[in-house]
Amino acid sequence: MSTPTFRNLIIAYTATEPGRDALNLGIAMARTSGAHLNLVTVIPEDNVYAAVYPSDRGHMPIIQQQVREWLEQAQASLPADISSSIHTISDSSDAAGLLTATQQLNGSAIVLGGRRGGLLRRFRLGGTATTLLHSSPVPVALAPGGYQNQEKLSWLTAMFGTRPGAEAVIQYALAAAQSFNLPLRLVSLLFLDQAQADSLPDGIETADLIAQVEQFGNEQLAAQAADMVANDQAATVVATGKDVHDAVEALTWMEHELVIFGSSRLASNQHTFLGATAARILRHIPSPMMVIPAETT
Amino acid sequence: MSTSPPLSTPSSTPSGKTPERGRSAKGLATGQIGIIGATVIGVSCIAPAYTLTSGLGPTISTVGTQVPAILLVGFIPMLLVAFGYRELNNRVPDSGTSFTWSVKAFNPWIGWMNGWGLIAATVIVLSNLAAVAVDFFYILLSQVLGNPDIALWTQNLWINIPTTLVFTAIAAWVAYRGLDTTQKLQYLLVTFQVLVLGAFVVAALVQTNNGQAFDATPVSLDWFNPLEITDFSVFAAGISLSIFMFWGWDAVLTMNEETRNPEKTPGRAATLTILIIITLYILVTIGVIAWAGIGDQGLGAGNPENQESIFAVLSGPVLGPVAILMSIAILASSFASLQTTMISPSRTILAMGYYKAFPPAFSKISPRFRTPSVATIASAVGTAGFYTITRLISENALWDTITALGLMICFYYGITAMACVWFFRKELTGSVRDFLFRGLFPGIGGVVLLVMFFQTAVDSIDPSYGSGTSLGGIGMVFILGMGVLLLGVVLMIWTRIKHPAFFAGETLPKTTSLTDDTTTITTI
């Protein structure tokens, strides 16, 4: 994973609440990193195999024009300090259209709006988000439903577990915290049954977590993390609980924070793949989250 | 293959990389479809299993054993008109609909009625597709559960109408959300239909040969001779029914950038499609007539009881336990068509709303799905309304709607073909090719279809026309067909009063092929 950039964000915009949630998160990210926002709306196009008949396309320019109008309104609503451009792309699938746009615009991350109505009224993934979270070559950020914040992000949180693959997320988070000058939380999730939890010493030491970074990341990262902790740039938290819900409930959530997850071991190289644990976690957190692609090996 | 970038970028230029897949400026996937793929799409648009069960009975009723002949002749105007469609589609691909073409070529009034004709034809076929899907849903259910009584539920209006409305609503919801039919599914659907129809033909002919047929009728070359049809009214009715049977075929011919070789693929695929379809239709017709005869008793193909949905009656006796496959094929074929066809009236309604030929509310687009919203609901409501009314006033609703549908297709195809000639009138003399494909062919096709339309319309006033259902001494087909067109005229006049801009030529001005700006739509 190269140095994290939010330089050129692809905002999956539609003139809907999830679209505005994505836009808000995009603004917050742009104010953190100085990113340029590409507002992209996919114009649905017939899959030729759907065999729609009569097959004329007189509706396409009408839809195109309406979508542009919506994009222009969205662009006009952006704060003056945000650099932006608007784009439409035709595809029979929203996810495929966004991936093509990302490739063509050289996007460094895709920002999506979350859906309302899920458990705890936070994240409930739609088909497009699910596809992107399992196939994008660039990080995918998801705003929770009703995300209002447009202010600069104030915290980064990296979540990792006791599994290989933590390296990418730790490295990404450390680099992002440094390049955007943001405080970082390194959160390790431990799932324990009651007996294990009782036998756990009060408070796991920072040193233990650094050791974990070394074990599941690498030595260099551990040194870097230790350094940041020493400089008060990073904090460490071990969240324990008998399951995801329990462990995540134990955490407190910061205002304007972005939670970073790695991809699961199932990810092909340099693509995202939302792991089962991460998928469960994101239902329980109120903050925007971002899944980064797996490390190239 | 076009490599221009798909991203339309009003306010900045993307640092575009070469796209992975070829895409045209409109974003259409380019170069993906070969001859086989395009043929599968063509066969799917025609939906032969559905078309045969709906259309064969009325056609046999009209022309008797001369069905193969009328199919061969009926294809000719279809082909001629399709040439015109292809020319218009290639010239005005991005703002092209039958509605806009005829407004540009003629005037807002003719254009409005043409748009209405297309909407009416698609709404009528939707109601028929939904009804056939519902019939075979209950037939399939009865076959699966081994209870013949269930197949009769469809005759109970309290079951039939609500089920049809539910099917319509499901199709509208799918259309609203955007379709996602995969290549695999489409290949499967088409192959399955063709195989089941083939099995029907083989079974019917083998049984006829073994003396197990209901009314074995020797196949005769006369069946292929159109000159055996001496009555022009019969001929006209047969032609409009065969136009319905081929409806959808022109989709292949108008395919363009999505094919691997736009110069050759569409033409070859269209040829292959029509060969498959005509062969299939003729074989099934021969199978049906040879096995069942055209007598009007029992299982005879001339029995009005059987003509509404020929396979509902014959597939059981002919195929025995395998008839369940026919039910699946027709249910799948009609339900798939129901979904894809639901999209098309909504698009014409959207365009008419956009150009203020309808109240502007009809041009609303769903921000979430980016598909026509009010127009999709209007299509579904229109379909539901048309079906309910037809079912309540006609005992032979399916039959009458198919005949009225043939009429409506002749109407809008005919006008569109004439619009092609008139739109290109200043470019007809450039080359022999232009003269033939933009002038002569669509001109002849258009005139033929309009003649068939008027002849059939006049004939259908007779209360004994078609299924023989009538209301107040007037044939049901006339009431349905002309009623829908008359409703159009009333709505057109109402729109003219309420929203005069379109009729004043302000939103979509008259033009010819030389002056038409095809790159933009009028911003309103």
What keywords describe this structure?
heterodimer; A: 297 residues; alpha/beta; Rossmann fold; 2 domains; 10-stranded mixed sheet; 10 helices; 10 strands; 36% helix; 21% strand; elongated; B: 524 residues; mainly alpha; Amino acid/polyamine transporter I; two-stranded antiparallel ribbon; 19 helices; 2 strands; disordered N terminus; AA/rel_permease1 (chain B)
Main beta-sheet strand count, sense and barrel state of chain A: 10 strands, mixed
> Which class best fits the helix and strand makeup of chain B?
mainly alpha
CATH architecture tag of the largest domain in chain A: 3-Layer(aba) Sandwich
* CATH topology heading of the largest domain in chain A: Rossmann fold
CATH superfamily of the largest domain in chain A: HUPs
Low-confidence stretches of chain B: 1-28
Main location (chain B): membrane
GO molecular function, one term (chain B): transmembrane transporter activity
Organism (chain B): Enteractinococcus coprophilus
Keywords (chain B): Cell membrane, Membrane, Transmembrane, Transmembrane helix
Write the layout of secondary structure elements.
The complex is a heterodimer of chains A (297) and B (524).
Chain A: E1 8-12, H1 17-33, E2 36-44, H2 60-76, E3 83-91, H3 94-104, E4 109-113, H4 127-133, E5 140-143, E6 155-160, H5 166-179, E7 184-191, H6 194-199, H7 206-216, H8 219-230, E8 234-241, H9 244-249, E9 257-261, H10 276-282, E10 289-291
Chain B: H1 35-46, H2 48-63, H3 67-91, H4 98-105, H5 108-145, H6 148-152, H7 157-177, H8 183-209, H9 232-246, H10 250-253, H11 265-292, H12 304-307, H13 310-319, H14 323-354, H15 374-393, H16 397-423, H17 432-459, E1 470-471, E2 474-475, H18 476-498, H19 500-503
Antiparallel strand pairs in B: 1-2
Helix pairs in contact in B: 1-8, 1-11, 2-9, 2-14, 2-16, 3-9, 3-11, 3-16, 3-17, 4-5, 4-16, 5-7, 5-14, 5-15, 5-16, 5-18, 7-14, 7-15, 8-11, 8-14, 9-16, 9-17, 13-14, 14-15, 16-17, 16-18
GO cellular component, one term (chain B): plasma membrane
Subcellular location (chain B): Cell membrane
Main location (chain B): membrane
